[in-house]
Amino acid sequence: MLGPVTYRILALACAMAALAACATMKEPLQQRTTQGPAAEEFWLYRVVLANGRQPNFEERRHWEDDIDERIAKYLRAHPAAANSLDVSTFRFFRRAAVGQTKDQIAILLGPPQVTTTDPAEMEKLARKFWPDIKDRVKEAWAYPLGWYVYFVDANVVEITQYLEP
After folding, report:
1. Would you say the C-alpha torsion 14, 16, 19, 24 has a positive or negative sign?
2. What gap in Å lies between CA 124 and CA 127, rounded to an integer?
3. What is the pTM of this model?
4. Angstrom distance (rounded) from CA 102 to CA 154
5. How far apart are CA 35 and CA 155, in angstroms?
6. Which residues contact 97 (CB under 8 A, 6 or more apart)?
7. Tens of pLDDT along the chain (165 residues)?
8. Could you list the residue range(s) of the whole structural domain that residue 65 is in?
9. Around Cβ 118, how many Cβ atoms within 10 Å?
10. Of the candidates 62, 81, 156, 111, which has an alpha carbon nearest to the alpha carbon of residue 90?
11. Is residue 17, in this structure, part of any structural domain at all?
């Protein structure tokens, strides 16, 4: 026969196990944001995927020099972008953001995995956010880690992310 203290300890252990089980059952990440992924995040993802390891100092320095040069070249060719209020997001933070152009996104994030102009396909990508954005978007680019960038003409108007746990 177990004593009352033992029952309490057993009940506490069961409650803790149930809490731990609930904590591991997360829902997918779904977000709609004005600032998307950073260029470095995608670069690291691609290096680790390709090599199975983190980049070394030399590889990181080479990437930083390369992206700085591509950004500087773009800004020299587009003085209006160089003088915009959002230039720091592009140049210093190297982060995709609403208002940027397709060229800027391509410089920061690289080529997309998938592009689409089909409304039915964009609805699948946008999931729960589709009713809010369907009248504003004409094209979508899909990137790793569940990131989707939506355009009207050449400008980003929406960014969403859907990532399974």
Report:
1. negative
2. 5
3. 0.82
4. 6
5. 14
6. 34, 35, 36, 86, 89, 90, 156, 159
7. 555 545 455 444 444 444 454 455 578 999 999 999 999 999 999 999 999 999 999 999 999 999 999 999 999 999 999 999 899 999 999 999 999 999 999 999 999 999 999 999 999 999 999 999 999 999 999 999 999 999 999 999 999 999 988
8. 28-163
9. 10
10. 81
11. no
Residue 67 falls inside a structural domain = yes
- Residue 44 CB partners (closer than 8 Å, separation 6+): 54, 55
**Residue bearing tokens 């960014």:** 159
Question: How many independent structural domains does the chain possess?
Answer: 1
| Cβ proximity of 150 and 139 under 8 Å | yes
Q: Are 142 and 112 in contact (CB under 8 A)?
A: yes
Q: Is residue 4 part of a domain?
A: no
Task: Please answer whether residues 138 and 117 qualify as being in contact, where contact means their C-beta atoms are separated by less than 8 angstroms.
Answer: yes
Q: What are phi and psi of 93, to 5 degrees?
A: -85, -20
Residue identified by tokens 């790793």 is: 144
Query: Residue 123: which residues within 8 A CB-CB, separation 6 or more?
Result: 130, 134
Domain presence at residue 3: no
Structure tokens at 153: 């003409």
